[in-house]
Design brief:
Two copies of one chain form a homodimer.
Chain A lengths: L5 E5 L3 H10 L5 E6 L12 E4 L6 H10 L2 E4 L7 H9 L8 H8 L1 H10 L7 E4 L2 H10 L4 E5 L9 E4 L2 H10 L5 E5 L3 E11 L5 E3 L3 E6 L2 E7 L5 H18 L3 E10 L4 E7 L9 H4 L4 H10 L12 E8 L11 H6 L3 E5 L10 E9 L2 H14 L3
Parallel strand pairs in A: 1-2, 1-4, 2-3
Antiparallel strand pairs in A: 5-8, 6-7, 6-8, 9-10, 9-11, 9-13, 11-12, 12-15, 13-14, 15-17, 16-17
Helix pairs in contact in A: 1-10, 3-4
Chain lengths: 379, 379
């Protein structure tokens, strides 16, 4: 692979913005492809190719022509077959389209994990409503019906506990391929970022705890407040995943910590991830720089935390309308608080408009400060 | 002052680039004025107004119209009278033009310092070659002749030790107003960044040691390896300066540590400064975010280091020609090493093309790693 000078990114949202901010100081150029002009990445100096819609072949061709390596911020923007056709022309795409394909379909992802002896909860394909009812009985009366494709921020998930719930889920996901997971009674949700270099070398970030509301990540606590043994289990699970993914890139790994102290793998994201935003201030190498290192063949950087603790809170939109950022002065008073506004417009309910990271001596203090900061801010 | 949404910067070089990178996550927009298209700040998403030359009144008017507050990266780009005329229209400029004026003329700067009982070495205006010779005798046979205006990276300085040196300096600086400073036999050069909030509240960063070659800063060691007493003297000097500057902004203060352990003030820069680049990775609040906080009326952030030590090395151009960045992969292997390439083109001998910051447990390790990294890189 010749030295990369230009990174092409599919998607120009906040993840691409944060990759762009990390790429520039390394002497690299970024071009993104997005459907909206003035996307967050373009606002920090990425060139933007505007796609007419997803799967815009001519826009993708232009990106491929102008980039030395291509990566993915939003894996739904293009069909995997289109990414494969780019690789066929000799232009590298990382993660490999085959790896993205494997992860994108949550059922094949789960099958891949099970096949490689990575601990996951019970799951099965759903082929009919009747069969879903049988599964519900088998799964002790509580399970999650998920769409195999296109799920994002929980919008492809439905928790079901009876026949009516199943019927409603079938209605909601009409015509989409589905599968079910037994409901895992977890005590905490954990996550970890892993990086795989072009030479296969893995790097694991600290295990963090994630908290969700309405299926959207709201808080990330780093490091997770769990026992050393639990932490080791989670890390070893992540390393097992890294070993089998077979493709360069940074991945977000979501896990459940069960009531009996076991760690089960929940989901993999084939890209930088919301649960790794804290790494910008808290780790030696941010997940964004790490991803660039991974896909351009640079050696991976250290993943250690350089502060004892950090908490990240998402700034989700609370109304629909024009952005009116207020409260930044009040937030600035809170010590060790770092604001990240993405420049998205307009604001929408639950849209990820930014995040706040607070570093500190311990997770509890950082959490209190981060929550206080979030309350003072409106966007 | 109404909440600032857009910051206008006079100059679009690396300092403006690093301010822009800090402004964006705070939800602020940046517009810069520069004479070269595609300046470093524009490359990271600042809008750019291209000035035909320095003192381009219509470009300045446009910047003023579109900005909520104006600040300065390169204080030579516009005459202070032009900045004053902007303030007269009601648009805030920080630092205040009067403060910039005071600092820009190194002789009035020195007089200001002496008047306020801030320790400086002996100095005097030079009015003729004869009088310069008298001064040289008074200053024990070694002094520095400096241009009052326009000195930058040592290009307005000449060390003189005899009549021939004086004649050469007069030739070199023909027609420019001059002054002389007694040569201070220092053991170390120190520097410190100070910030003054709109309400006058000061914040002092750690004292660092700076090393120069050919009058250009090459290395910065943070914190300076000096005694606690010396450090306190330097900090108290910086606070004295902050008290008298009377204007919001971040300032770089350069000092001498003399052989007998005294600290003398050398020069003030009315802006973010090369000796403060280490703050990006090493301090809770970078000098760039701090400057934005200061000039927009936000509360100042914490200046503490979050790592025990950091060393910054400048990447100076070593030839004239097209940029060919090489060695970034080798640099990436060195632990705790952070690369900052500014995107300037072409490369020129001694042009500041980027910098490297290495964080670490101690200054010595960080220094060794930073020097190794610098050697591996060519630009």
């Amino acid at each position: 692979m010749k030295p990369a000078k230009t990174i092409g990114i599919l998607g120009g949202g906040q993840l691409a913005q944060l990759i762009t901010l990390a790429a520039k100081p390394l002497g690299l150029k970024v071009i993104v492809i997005d459907t909206s002009p003035d996307c967050p990445a373009a606002q920090v100096g990425a060139e933007e190719i505007i796609a007419k819609s997803g799967n815009d072949q001519s826009a993708l061709n232009e990106l491929a022509k102008r980039s030395d390596v291509i990566t993915v911020e939003f894996e739904e923007l293009f069909d995997v077959s289109m990414l494969k056709s780019i690789v066929a022309t000799g232009k590298p795409v990382y993660p490999l389209p085959a790896t993205i394909e494997l992860i994108k379909d949550k059922l094949t992802q789960k099958e891949f994990l099970r096949k490689n002896n990575i601990a996951v909860g019970p799951f099965a394909e759903i082929t009919s409503q009747d069969q879903a009812e049988e599964l519900l009985a088998k799964y002790s009366g509580k399970m999650v019906i998920k769409t195999r494709l296109g799920g994002y921020d929980g919008n492809g998930n439905a928790v079901v506990q009876n026949v009516q719930d199943i019927a409603a889920a079938f209605q909601k996901f009409l015509g989409r391929p589905l599968y079910a997971e037994a409901f895992v009674p977890f005590t905490k949700e954990l996550a970890v970022m892993i990086a795989c270099g072009l030479n296969g070398e893995p790097a694991v970030y600290p295990i963090v705890e994630t908290r969700q509301e309405r299926n959207i990540c709201t808080e990330v606590l780093a490091p997770a407040q769990i026992s050393g043994e639990e932490s080791k289990k989670a890390e070893s699970l992540a390393l097992q995943v890294a070993e089998h993914l077979g493709s360069a890139g940074v991945y977000g790994i979501e896990m459940f910590l069960t009531e009996d102290g076991e760690v089960l793998l929940n989901e993999i994201a084939p890209r930088v991830h919301n649960s790794g935003h804290y790494t910008i201030e808290a780790c030696v190498t941010s997940q964004f720089e790490q991803h660039i290192r991974a896909i351009t063949g640079m050696p991976l950087g250290k993943t250690d935390m350089k502060v004892p603790a950090a908490v990240m809170i998402n700034i989700l939109g609370e109304r629909n309308g024009r952005v009116e950022l207020k409260g930044t002065d009040d937030v600035a008073i809170i010590p060790d608080t770092h604001l990240h506004i993405y420049g998205k417009s307009p604001t929408k309910i639950d849209r990820k408009m930014g995040h706040i990271t607070v570093t500190g001596k311990d997770v509890q203090t950082a959490l209190e400060r981060a929550r206080k900061a979030r309350k003072l801010l409106s966007v």
